[in-house]
Design goal:
Elements: H1 3-17, E1 24-29, E2 32-35, E3 51-54, E4 69-73, E5 85-97, E6 110-116, E7 139-144, E8 148-153, H2 155-162, E9 171-174, E10 181-184, E11 197-203, H3 209-242
Length: about 240
């Protein structure tokens, strides 16, 4: 898309979105699939595991023991209440455990990069060797030094899915730090509040605002779809060259 057209399109969207009143709903989504492939067992499928991880580690003999987490939520435009628009989307997971029970700890603050996945995948087949390409981080959580909620602002990514600008291939959570960040998966027998969650905030636009917002999204969607396939293909190819 031409940079000027993109600027005009998003300006329409955000100018009208800024005029939205604080009246709406919160939609909580906790259905989907997830997995966390393990570099040491690169052909292992872990889709039914109750634990997922994100960290990098090298053993004394130089062997890598890295994990990445992949999660895809069942989210679509149908999740937005009629007459409302999406204003915020948060990816929420819980840092619930590490390896301290096995005598292994890390005092290094952890970092989590939240990324959009660019290729299809399934929790029944994904392994370290065939894991999909993901984009550059859209949000990063730093200074993780204690258990608790990990929240990434995924608004722009989820807007793309909701409004048909990009396919929903889910999120990747990666880390280049050695702190073991363990999280519960969808399969874990724990309180739903500890499982992966996508929180959508929606609002009701004022009369007249909805028309302008829709026009901006329509223009953006029309222009984006013209080049979406080739652009995403280029991003995937560029990422693969870095691997």
């Amino acid at each position: 898309m031409h940079p000027l057209l993109r600027l005009v399109s998003w300006s329409l969207v955000f100018s009208f979105a800024a005029a939205l009143p604080a009246v709406g709903d919160t939609v909580v989504i906790q259905s989907g699939i997830d997995t966390a492939p393990y570099s040491f067992l690169p052909n292992l499928v872990r889709g039914n595991n109750a634990a997922v991880y994100a960290f990098q580690s090298v053993s004394d003999d130089g062997t890598n023991h890295d994990f990445e987490t992949y999660v895809r939520f069942d989210v679509s435009a149908a999740d937005i209440p009629p007459g409302q628009v999406l204003t915020e989307a948060s990816l929420v997971t819980t840092y619930a455990f590490d390896f301290s029970g096995f005598g292994e700890t890390s005092n290094e603050p952890g970092v989590i990069d939240c990324r959009e996945v660019l290729e299809p995948w399934s929790d029944t087949t994904l392994t370290w060797n065939n894991r999909p390409v993901s984009d550059l981080p859209f949000d990063t959580i730093t200074q993780i030094d204690s258990f608790g909620a990990l929240i990434c602002d995924a608004t722009a990514v989820v807007e793309g899915w909701i409004y048909g600008l990009a396919p929903n291939h889910g999120f990747a959570m990666t880390s280049e730090t050695g702190r073991v960040i363990g999280m519960h998966s969808f399969e874990a027998d724990v309180s739903p509040s500890l499982q992966p969650t996508l929180v959508l905030t929606t609002e009701v636009p004022e009369p007249g605002v909805a028309m302008g917002l829709a026009s901006g999204l329509l223009l953006l969607g029309t222009l984006s779809r013209r080049r979406a396939g080739s652009v995403r293909a280029a991003r995937i190819a560029a990422t693969r060259r870095l691997l």
